[in-house]
Fold each of these.
Amino acid sequence: MTLPQLQELREIEDKARKELAAVSDEEALESWRITHLGRRSRLNLLLRGLASLPLDERRQVGETANRLRSQLEEDLSQRQAQLSEAAVTAAVESGRLDVTLPGRPLAMGRLHPVTQVLRDILAAFVSMGFQVVEGPEVEWDYYNFEAVRIPKDHPARDMWDTLWIDYARNEEYPMLLRTHTSPMQIRVMEQMQPPVRIVSPGKCYRHEATDPTHEWMHTQVEGLAVDENISMADLKGTLYEFARRLFGRERRVRFRCDYFPFVEPGADMSIDCPLCEGQGCRACGNSGWIEILGAGMVHPEVLTNVGYDAERYTGFAFGLGVERVAMLRHGIEDIRLFYANDLRFLEQF
Amino acid sequence: MKVPLKWLREYVDISLSTSELARRLTMAGTEVDAILTTGRDWEKISVAEVVDVSPHPTADRLRLTTVDLGGEQMTVVCGAPNVAAGQKVAFARVGAELIDGHSGEPAILKAAKIRGVESAGMVCSEKELGLSDSHESILVLPEDAPVGTPLGEYLGDTIFDLDITPNRPDCMSVLGIAREVAALSGGSVREPPGDYEEQGRPIKGRLSVEIVDRDLCPRYCAALIEGVQIGPSPPWMQECLLAAGVRPISNVVDITNYVMLEVGQPLHAFDFSLISDRKIVVRRARPGEVLMTLDGTERPLNNDALVIADAKEAVAVAGLMGGAASEVTEKTTAILLEAANFNPANIRRTSTTLKLRTDASARFEKGLSPELAMVGIRRAVRLMVELAGGRAAEGIIDVYPGKKRITRITVTQERLRRILGLQLPTLQVRQTLTSLGFGCRWVPPDRYVVRVPYWRTDVSIPDDVAEELARIIGYDELPITTLRGAIPPAQPQPSRELRERVKDILAAAGMQEVIAYSLTNLESLTKVLPPEELRERPPLRVANPMSQQQEYLRTTLRASLLGTLSSNLRHRQGRIALFEVARAYLPRPDELPQEMESLAGVVTGDRPDRWGQPTGEPVALYDAKAYLEFLFDRLGLTVTYHDGEEFTLVPGRTAEVRLDDQRVGLVGQVHPRVAAAFDIEQDVYLFEVNLEAVVPQVGKPRLYQPLSRFPAVEEDIAIVVDEGVTAAQVQAIIEAFPLVQRAVLFDVYTEAPVPKGKKSLAYSVAYQSLEHTLSEAEVNRERRRILDRLKGQVGAVLRS
C-alpha cells in the first residue's frame, strides 16, 4: 500500500525532470529552481508537512523526499554546467574572425642598415675580446698621415684624397676630415700600454666623386691588437673567424699581399663572391672574389712612434668598410642609397 | 700599367696558364685588374695595303681609298686625313665588330652609301680596334706588316692591366714584372743587353754636367749619340708600344719610351745642337723662370722646382717633361740623352704645383734606385746605335753625389717566426729570396744577412724581408691561430653606450633612424640658426669642398633632418617620425672642434587609423613630447619641461627640457617659416637632446618604491585655475603630500561653464599608506590640505 506522499513525490520528480529537459537558458533554469527547489516548491512544502506524519511514515517519506531533493540539485548543477558550456560554445562559434586581416598597426621604428651591420661587426670582434673605442672625425694631419708613415709628398697619399679644414694655422698644423680610422691606432696606443685589443668604428671622409661604388662619407671599423708574440697567423685566425660569423661558414676567405704604409707585411682579405658563388659576375669584377678589408702587421715604425718597444711587441691592424659589408649582405648595388635616407629604402631593413 | 705578354716573354719564360699567372701575381701583391685580349674580336679585319687614294666626287674631306688585301682589291670611302698610298693599314670588311668612333660602343660594320659612293668596308682607327681613344687618324701599321694576314694573328696579344702599389716603382716596368713572374713560377730572368760599340769621340770635354742642388738630384748620367737619322722606329718596337698603350712617334722618342717601359728608367733626349754652351746644370728654378714644355704649355716655375738648364736657361722640368726649345725634331742629328735620378718628394711637389703628371714623374715620385739610371742609359744608347743609325760617343758622363751603399739587412730566424707565425726552413728562405734577386747568407746559429738588389728601394727592415718570403710562398700557406694572451681590462664607454641605447629606445618607440652627411651648406644652416650665432661661432669650413652643397661641418642636426623629411614628404603621406644621433662639430680656436653627440627627431603628418591610414588628425606637440617622455623613462631619468624659446621653433609651443635644472634639450613646433624654407607645408614638431649633457646622469640605478599591503583610496579632484598656471605646478603640489601615492591628470577643460581665462584640471588621486588602512577622516583631512595649498599657491578653486 503506497503512501500518497510517495505518489506525490513521484509526480514532483516526473514534472521536474520533464521541465528541466526543456530549460534552454540561465533565466529559465533559475525559474525552474524556484519552482522545484525553492521555498514555495511542492517538494519543500511536502518536507515541511512531514512533521504531522507518524514516525515510520515520516522516516519513509522524508528519506525519499530528501533523496529526490539532492537528486534534483545534482540535476540542476549538471544542467547549469551544460548550459554555460553551450553558451561558451555559442559565443565562440559566433565570434569567428578573418585571421588574415592585418594586425592593428604599431608604430614600427627601425635602425639604419649601417647601424645594424656595424653592430654585428662589432659584436663579432667583442666576442673575441676586442674593446670598442671611438675618436675624433676631425683630425690632425699628424694622426691621419704622419704618425702612420704617410709623410707629406708621399705618393701613398694618393690612396686617400683628403678634405682639408680651412683654419688659421693650417700651414703649421694641418687639420682634416679623417680619411680612415687608422689614426685611432695612434690615439689608442698613446693612451695605453700593451696588451691592446680594440676595434674603433666611425665616419671617414674622402675627396671623391660619388658613383654606385664610391661615396665621400663612409663608415669604417679599425682593428688593432698588439702584444708580445702576435703574428700574421693570429691576424688570419681573427679575420677568418670574423668573416665566417658575418658571411656564414660556407664562405671561402682569401688573403693576398697588399700595400698600406702603416703595416708590414701588408694584406687584404677577400671572400668568394656571395652573389655568384665565386663564379665571377659584375659585382666581383668577374674575379669571383670581393675584397672586404685591408690588414697587416703593424709597422715597427708605427710602434716606435708611440713609444712602444718594437722588438718586444708585434701586432696586427685592419680596416674595413661597413657599407661594403652591408651591400654584400643585402645585395645593394648603389652605395649612395645609404645616406640618401629615402624611407622606401630604409624601411626594408 | 699595361704589360703585353708577348713583350714579357722576352725576359722570362712563362710556364703557367694566363689565368694562373694572373692569380699568382695578384696574390703576391701585383693585382691584375683586367686581362685584355686584343685580336679576339678582330674577325673580318686584316692587314691591307693602300694602293690608291683619290678624291671623293662630291665631298672635299672624303677620299676614295683602294686597298689591296693580298690578291683582292676594294675601294672604300675614308675620312682620315693621314691616309696615303703605300701604307699598311687595318681593313675591316662588312660584318666586322668595331668600336664606334663616336659612341664608344661595339657595333657591327654595315655596308653604306657615303655621299653617293658605295663603301663596303673600313680603314680602322686605333679607337675602332679598341686599342686606344685615338680616332682622328687611321692606324698605320709597320711597313713589314704582311698583307692579307688576319689582324688578330699579326697584332693580337694578351695584355695584363696591373695595379701597381706605390711602394713598387720597380714593377712599373716589364722587366720588373718579369722578375716577379720568375720568382713566382721558378723561372729565370733574361736581362736586356746594354752593351754597344763606342764609335764616336769621347764625350769628355764636349759636354759638362753640374749638379747645383745635390739634395734633389742624387745622380745624373748623360750620353751623346751623333749622326742619328730620325725616322720611324722598327715595327716590333711600335707593336710593343702600341700594346702597352703608348703612341709611337719617332725612333729616338720611341726608344726613350720603350726603355722606360722596359726597365723602368725615365729618359729624356735633347737635341744636342740646341743645348747652349754644351753645358747641363741641374738647379732649382730661378725666380720668375718660365719654361715652355713639350706639350706647348708655358709653365711658370717656383723656386722649389728642379730644372735641367743649359748655360742660358731651363731646358726641362726635371723628372717631369722636357722643354719645347730643345725638342728632338726631324732635323736632329746629335742626341744628348739623359738618365737621372731625382728626389721623390720634390718631383711630387712640383708635379702637384704644375698639375702635370707624366709617366716619368709617376716613377720618380715613388723613389727609383739611382743605380737604374746607368742601366737605362746603356740600354737606350745601344738601341739608338742599333735602330737610329747613331754613333755613340765614348764614355758616359756620370755625376753621382747620392751614391749609397748596398742595403744589407740582418734578419733573425726568431723575427721571421714572430711575424709570420711559422718557422721556415733555411733552404726555403734562401731559395725564395734568391729567386727575387736578393742575396742571402745564413749566419749560424740563428740569422740571415740579406743583400737587397738595387731595384728594391722598398726593402729596408727585417719585416720587409718577412713580407717578401710570405708573398712568394703565399699568404695562404701561413698557419691560422687564434689570439692568446691577456685580454686588456675593459674601459667604460658611457657616451657610446648611451648613444646606442637611445637609438634602440627611439626605434622601439616607432621612429626611423636616419644618417645624414656631416657636411652641409651655409644656406641650410642659415635656415635653422640665428644669424648672430653663425657670426659668432661660424661652422668649420672645408678648404677644398667637392661642391658648395658639402662645404661646412654641421653644428646642428636640425637642417639635415628637416631636409631629409622634406625629400621623403614628396612620396609619403601619413605620420613620419625620424631621428638621427650624430655629432655636431663645434669649432674651438686652434683646436680640434668639439664633436658633440646630439640627438634630433622630427615628427609630422596625420595619426594613423586602425588600417594605418592617415586619419586627418595631425600629430601635435604632445606626440613629439611623448617620444622624449618615453626616452627619458627608459633611461631612468627624470626631466622637467618648461616654457622655452628657440630660433627655429614657434614661441609658446616650445618647451625646454631640463635635467637637474640644466637645459639638456628642447621640443617644439618648427616655425612655419622655417618649415616653408625646407618646402614643408604641414606642421612639424622637432626635439633635440644634447647627449653629452645627459651622459653623466645615466646609469644611476632607480630606487624601488615598496608596495603597500593596505588598500588605496582613489578619488577624482577637479580644480579651476588661471590659464597661466601649468599642469606641472599643480602636479608638483599634489604629489608633495605624503599620503598621495600618485596623481594622474585625466582632463583639461576650458569651455563653459569654466570662466574665460581659466581652465579646469581633473586629477585622479590615489591615497595610500604603507603602515595602515586609511580612514575616511584621514583622506578627508589630506584632501582639505591639498586644496588649501592649491588655493594658496596657484589660486585654485574646487570645481563644483
Amino acid sequence: MIRTLALPAALLGWATVTYGNRALEVMNPALLPTPGEVAAVTVALARDGSLARDVLVSSGRIVAGFGLAAVAALALGLAVALYAPARLAVEPLVEFLRPIPPLAFLPMFLVWFGLGETSKVAFIAYTTFFPMFVAVTASLLRVDVMLLRAAASLGATRRDLLRRVVLPAALPGIVVALRLGFGLAIFVIVGAEFMGADAGLGNLIMEGRVFFNPAQIVMGALLLGVLGSLVNGLLVALERRALGGRALR
Amino acid sequence: MSARVQLEGLHKTFGVDGHAAPALSDVSLEVHAGELLCLLGPSGCGKSTLLNIVAGFLPPTRGRVLVDGAPVTGPGPERGVVFQEYVLFPWLTVAQNVEFGPRLQGAPAERCRAIAARYLHMVGLSEHAAKFPVQLSGGMKQRVAIARALANSPSIVLMDEPFGALDAQTREVLQEELSRIQRVEHKTIIFVTHSIREAVYLADRVVVLNRAPGRIKEIFTIKLPEARDRFAPEFTRYESEITRLVKEEVARVHE
C-alpha cells in the first residue's frame, strides 16, 4: 500500500511545487521544469530516436564495465580467499589504490583510451571493481569454519567444500557486492560521459546544461533512476533466491 | 557397523612455547566397537579438545588416534560429528541437510531421498522435511543434525555436548531418543557432556577427566539395563558416586 503510493505521491508533490511556482512565480519558472515539460521533452527525443540511442549507449557501457569488473572481482576474490600467497600479493596494491577517488584518474582514462567506448567501459570497470572485490573477498573469507568442519566430517573433499559450502554460504554477500557495484556504475557513467562523449544519458544531461534545457536534465536524471531501480529489482530477486531458506528469517 | 577407537598417549598443548597451556596430558583409552562412551568433566578439562582430535579437526601435539587400527589424519566420513550448535547448512532444507553425506558419496538421487526419509522418520521429523533450519526449534535442529550424521552411515559418532543448548525437558526427550536409536544402530559413540545425569543415563562407560591438564581420573562402567529409569536406586547410586568424584575435582581447582 505505502509502497505503491510512494511514487505517485512524489510525482504529485513535484507537480504541486512546479505548477504552483509557475502560477506564483516564486522563482524563475524556467528553472523548475514541470512534469508536463519533462514529458514533452521525452516525447520529442523519443520521436527522433536519440533517446533510445542514449539509453542503449549508456546501458551498454554500464553493462560492459560492470560485467568486466564483476568477473574480475569474483575471480580475484576467489584466488585471494582460497590461496594465501595471492592474498599477500594482491591486498596491499588494492588497499593502496582503493582510497584514491577514481575521478582523479578519469582524465588519464581519456588520454589512454580516447573519447570512444573503451575509456567509458574501462573507467566504470576500474571504479566498480574495488568495492565488489572487497565485499566478495570478505564474504568468502567469513564462511563459518564450523560449516566447513561439518561438511568435512560428512566426507567433503576440498572441491566439495568450495562448491557445496563456501560458495552457497558466501552467495548472499556476493549478490550484495554486485548490487553495490551496479549502483556505483550508474553513479560514475554520468561523470565519464560528462568528460566527453557523443551519446549517452550523461551526454544528454550535459547537452541540457549547454543549451539551457532544465527539463532535459531532469529527464536524464529520472531515466538513470528508472534504469538503476530496474536492475536493482533484478538483483534483489537474485538475492532472495541466493538466500534460499535464510530469507525466511 | 561400528568401529573400535584407540587413543594412544594423546597430548595437546595450545599456544606457543613460552606460554604453552597443556589441554590434554597423556590420555590413553580404548573405545569398544558399539559402545556409548561419555567423556565427563568440568568445563576446561579438555573433553571437547579430545573430541576434536578424534574428529580430525585438531592434530594432537603427541600421540595418535586409531580407528580400527588406521591412524586418523583429518576429518572423515566414517566419523560423524554432532555439534552443540547444530551447524546445519542454512541454505538447504531439512531433507537436503540429511542427504548431504550420501550425495557427497555420489549415491543416486532416489536413494538419497530414501535414506533421508528413513532417518527423518527415525528422529520424528518426517513432516518437516521441506522446511529450512531457521524455521525449526533448537531441539528439532539437533534432531536434524543427528539424522544428518547417521544418514552418512558412519561407524563412529562423535557428539560434543549435543544437548547442552537445549532446555531441560527437550534434553531428556532427546536423551531418550538417542538411547532408543542406539539400541537399533549400535554405533560407537563418544559423547561429551558435563551433565552427570546425562552420562549415567546414556553411557556404557563414563570417563571422568581431570582438569588442567586434562587426564583420565577414573572410568566407570554403568551396569544398568538398556532402557534406564532415572529414578531407580541404582541409577541414583551411580549419579552420587560420580558426583562426589567430580566435586573433589572442582574443589581442587578452586583451592
